[in-house]
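Bug: token stream looks shifted between consecutive jobs. Job 1:
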Amino acid sequence: MSPDSPASTSPHSKLRLYLVALAVVLVAASAAAVMFIVRDGSGLKVRYEVEATSKTATMITWTNGTSSEISKVPASLGETAGLPWSTTVTFKKSQQYVAVAVTLSEPGNATCRMFFDGEKVAETTNPGGVICEGTTP
């Protein structure tokens, strides 16, 4: 057998390999747990942005961070919301559904964007209306 063949690997080499793999897994799990604890305790700022070639929207809806409630503008039928539009909401829990949707009042392209703590996580453009959705980390 050659010294490079797998059968000639010493038990100590295998043990070192297993220990390194275990250390990598533990570090990754610890980092994920810390991110969850920090995120869960401090709240996540979610910014929604909507813009379009049209200057008004028939409706804009978005999740607002409290259970499954949805906020919308305009509040009454027959009214329109001005574009561009944006708002920021704080989500206090992880793994919450996050979404913003817009329906234009005139033909044109709409774009929505979502940011988690300032980092863009979604952007979509479609004619007539658009939705951006995701889950908080």
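Job 2, same session, no restart:
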Amino acid sequence: MYARVVVDAGATSSIDSLTYEIPDGLAGRIGVGSCVLVPLRSGQAVGYVIGIEETSPVASTRPIIAELENPVRLKPDLRRLAEWISARYLCPQARVEAAMLPEVAHWKVQARVEIAERKAEAKEPTLVRPGHLVPYAASSHLQPTPKLTRAEAELAAKIAAAEGGATIEGLGGNRDSVVRLIRQLEKKGVVRRTWKLIPPGGRPRVLRGVRLTERSGDAPECSDVELTDKQLAALSLIRSIGGDVSIVELTQRYGLTWSPIAALIKKGLLQEITMTFRRSPAFARINQSRVALTQDQQYAVDEITSAMQSGQYRGHLLFGVTASGKTEVYLRCIERALEAGRTSLVLLPEIALTTQVMNIFKSRLGDAVAVLH
């Protein structure tokens, strides 16, 4: 069996996908969406399987090295979107999928070695050669034990003692010698190598936050709780934001002080929580009132939504200078599409617009907005 794999082969590459052989050891495990480590030129690359074939379109193929553990998987809906974008805008699917999974390009592929699963038969230390025993921790995995040299047995014992497997660096000694011994142990079925993606360093940001309680109710005021004007204003603001919100955001972005927040927590209207954030570009929600459309804007919205309802493809060009209201037309049309159970894709002409546009779109559409870059 063979797999079609998309890899990030460089910004100038026109490669759409490459064909790799699925080795016997990975047969049945590799499927569409699998994250794999493959040979590329003289090195290695991370790729995603987009198809499984019984035959190869090329005469010579190289085998997949490994399926990566704990990868950021390419979900079916993203794969379908990538295929559509590739066909619609005539760009390699590999480039599209690389944009959907930007983090992987910065992740480190870590190789680990662990004892291969073998049926345990002996409960005593195993005699490998005169004068040398494999410790019980290793021997319980190594039965029936193949003939090992002293160096192989010592390395196997180190690997068995390492919880969760061992890295080559963690085994110590000369790297080339360790790699050679690992390959010998692999051939004898004693150990196996695994690969996993390690995210970039840096811990997630942990902040204190608040959440509305059931007691806070839906009304602006709570009849059974006496609130000051500042407490009532704080509660109304948190309701308008919706969902969990960090105290940092409330104080720095909205200008609240800690005193009314603490009072609302004490009165049972807010619950203090811990919020964990991945360190990624932040997009701020902008409090904007819904504007009334001009006559020209309404005409454009009606024309576009009418075309959407017809089910036929039509192209439209909005002509207008900067700040003439084109974005509001886009938003109204997207809202109509979402109401109809459909989705929307917005292409930005330059990356510098990302933060500005995301702030606006998130304010109107919430957390359903995602950046593919």
